What we know:
Layout: E1 2-3, E2 9-15, E3 21-25, E4 29-32, E5 35-38, H1 43-67, H2 74-92
Helix pairs in contact: 1-2
Amino acid sequence: MYLNRDLTAKKVVVKSSDGLSFAVSAERLVLKDGVLVLQEPPQAYILHAVKETCKALLELVEAYAEKDPQNSLPALSAAREHLKTALNALEKA
């Protein structure tokens, strides 16, 4: 267990039944029926964060492509298409 200065738990090392160990934020652990349970972040929150990241990256790629359209790298065009595809998939999810 890793502690904050006020001695509250910050991170907890968890060992799974198959022997793997990993550290998790103590905020994600809750006591349920006498057992510590790892809470998963809400799926909608993750999808929203990924969607907003894709939108920001797409805006950046498009702004750069508009700045110098004749010399845009083919990689930028490919990145733009991948981002559009990812964003469309996220919109449908």
